[in-house]
Amino acid sequence: MKSFNSFPKIDSHFHSTFYNPIYEKIAKENNLKLININTNANVFPSMEIQETIALAYISKSKDHFAFVASFEMDGWENEGWYEKTFARIENSMERGAVGVKVWKNIGMEIKKSSDNSFLMIDDPFFDPLFKYLNENSIPLLAHLGEPKNCWLPLDEMTSDRNRIYYSNNPEFHAYLHPEIPHYELQIQARNNVLEKFPHLVLIGAHLGSLEWSYEALSLHFEK
Questions:
Q1: Residues 127-138: pLDDT tens digits?
Q2: Which of 19, 34, 119, 152 has the fewest CB atoms within 10 Å, i.e. the most exposed one?
Q3: CB 17 within 8 A of CB 53
């Protein structure tokens, strides 16, 4: 039997928003590559800080670190947003990013000023972005929606881990915020993107938010 350290491994869900040399030590000792996921979340620092930290790790050990870039949604309704965002993505890819991430603020937080409805990932607004990513062969990591438990009361959740998380983070517990588009609408919006852009490389974070059923996940992959 091979030893744990004898074969390479990848942790594809690593968040480090400040440099800590312990991660470099862990990665090297365990033959591990850590992919630092930059995220446009209000609980994280700015994109500039996140990317700077990710690049600091890479500068120390390129064999053990990589990063997925992201972009700010602030000002998305303003003129020039696409140009600024595409320039940011291009710069991030040139600096070594292996993809770009979108987060659940799309579909669960951001609203349109025109009618106060939630901005969903299949909104035509995002078409130029997906076209750009597709034409430049840039993978899209998508954390869209949440576990299905997010839309259930705490005592009906199927996971203690989810129950603890939403107890501690009620702002993300959609059951408490019925105005948030329901789980099925989040998944359908994502699927609409896949149908509209069939050649877009889309990585569904957290088992594509289909963690509640491996059968459903299998059927989705088959389709």
A1: 999 999 999 999
A2: 19
A3: yes
Q: How confident is the model at residue 2 (pLDDT cuts 50, 70, 90)?
A: confident
Backbone φ, ψ for residue 86 (5° rounding):
-65, -40
**Which DSSP string corresponds to 136-190?**
TT--EEE--S--GGGGS-GGG-S-HHHHHHHHH-GGG-GGG-TTSPPHHHHHHHH
Q: For 72-80, what is the mean pLDDT?
A: 96
The SS3 call for residue 3 is coil
Q: Give the global pTM.
A: 0.93
**Amino acid symbol at 200:** L
DSSP codes joined into one string, 46-105: -HHHHHHHHHHHHHH-TTTEEEEB----TTTTSTTHHHHHHHHHHHHHHTT---EEE-TH
Give, to the nearest 10 degrees, the angle between helix 21-29 and helix 47-60: 50
Using the structure block, give the residue that is written with the tokens 């088959």: 222
Distance of CA 89 to the CA centre of its chain: 15
